[in-house]
Give the backbone structure.
Amino acid sequence: MRTPRRRWKFAAVAAMAALFSAQPSSRPRSSAPCPAGSCETDHCTVVMVGKKASADGSVISTHTSDCGVCDWTWRYVPPADHQPGEMRRIYYFDQFATDPPKKGLRYDALEPKYAGLEIPQVAHTYGYLHGMFGYMNDNQVALGESTIGCREQMENSTTAPKMDITTLTMIAMERAKTAREAIQIMGDLAVKYGYGHTDSGEMLSVSDPNEIWVFEIMPVGPLWAPETGEPGAVWAAQRVPDDHVSVCPNESRIGEIDLNDKDYFLASPNVVSFAVKQKLYDPASGKPFNWKRAYSPVTASAASSNGSRVRLWRFFDLVAPARKFSASTPNMDLPFSIAPEKKLSMADVMTILRDKNEGTPYYPARGLQGGPFENPNMLPYGFTLDGRKYDTSRVIGVNRAEYVAVTQARDWLPNPIGGIVWIGLGSQDTHCLMPFYAGVTSIPASFEIGDHWEFDRRSARWAFDYVDFHTQVVYSAAIKDVRKAQETWEKGAMDRTPEIDAQALRLHEKSPEQARRFLTDYCLNNANLVVNAWWNLGDELMVKYMHLWQYDIQRRSRKPLEYPEWWLRELVRYNQLQPQADVKK
């Protein structure tokens, strides 16, 4: 126990940290990120589907890891048994860090990341699939992530908090049997040991075969330390009704909280008192406590931000168009969740993840912005001209994803068969989602290597980037070739799922281990075939659209690419081109 004098010394150090940010994050930190406009730190979108809102009764969650410069590698963490008295070391994992491949896998060199804390280990830890975060474990407990920010006064980039969001997801995967259990595990650890360091406000979708929740967590300021005796985090969780869908587009989604309704709300003990202490909520106002308005308010709408805050409105517009939500409605006033007009299939969810605001004023390929080949990936961050900032649309299907993870939890099948993580490496436009059942015991070696700065044909991700690069140049033409490949491989895998389920179930009734071997072989073989197909597709695109011509490989002929009439007219106008003089015959 610290003496009073040591407490005084710690307070002084903490105060200096608050002023000078002694342990700054390696990425920009912000309160309520970019509330009025476009933001380069808008990284992830999470879509959530309750079991009665999905076409097949599965609980679905997604995570588009939209960092653009982060680690894209995946690994399988096997289950393990542990001895009595064994301790688990805690490490810091900045979610935005990327190590060169020569340093090895991100989770191999751990000791430099040691946070100085050990906690009691449990007797058994579950196996799980892990990318930047834990995604699904042996019990079909699944997660998705979206950074939501918090008020600046709440951030804590010192080393006093020992938990960051990556570590919390890993421990939840190791220990949780249900979504509620995962929430409580993460919340309790953060309250006890502190949350923050490289992370500010974060949202996680937390699901199992029966429920899906929104879990949001935030630091409690730079002066916090375990010696204060105060909670080291503030968090809240709200359940998505079974017949509803919801979304998190880098904005806090939880509003008013009814802590008496334990079936739909969970929270840390300081959920309201901390807001009062920080003068973020006044009980005397007579207004009910509202989580997002207190801790992470966003003032913009789709219309006021010229589309940089369009994802929330666009999601509701897609799933419930008859309700005609206005793009001018402030995002803070849009609902937490909604019953979709039709139940969503996996294909519907994948379509939403690729959405570019087509048919709306916020379609980024309209007019000059998309160029002659209608590329919706131009100017994703907005721009500055003559000292003035111009916002552009931040679509759901932004083209900087490290990967997309779509989790499916199904209560009518044994856990190894019921759970599926669909993984798509790289941008949603041009990748292909590949299934990995919860029962797999390994993943392809090509998923474990590679980074943005070193081209490597051993890395699966580079196969999809290779296709993406050739697609961007002549987007409107090349994307048709990509869609055909996705129809073959992605839809093909979805169509095969019932057959694979049935075969695995027959094996599982005889031998669970035999079923796991079958599922592992199937998933690895399918993934390897897809990766090879994408390398070949990249080669084909390079030949087909070489030199901005169109080469017919079968006929061994070529023709010029066709440019749209509107673009040619604009070219004539802007460049003041003159038509050829009439030639007299």
About this structure: The chain has two domains: 13-390, 413-559.
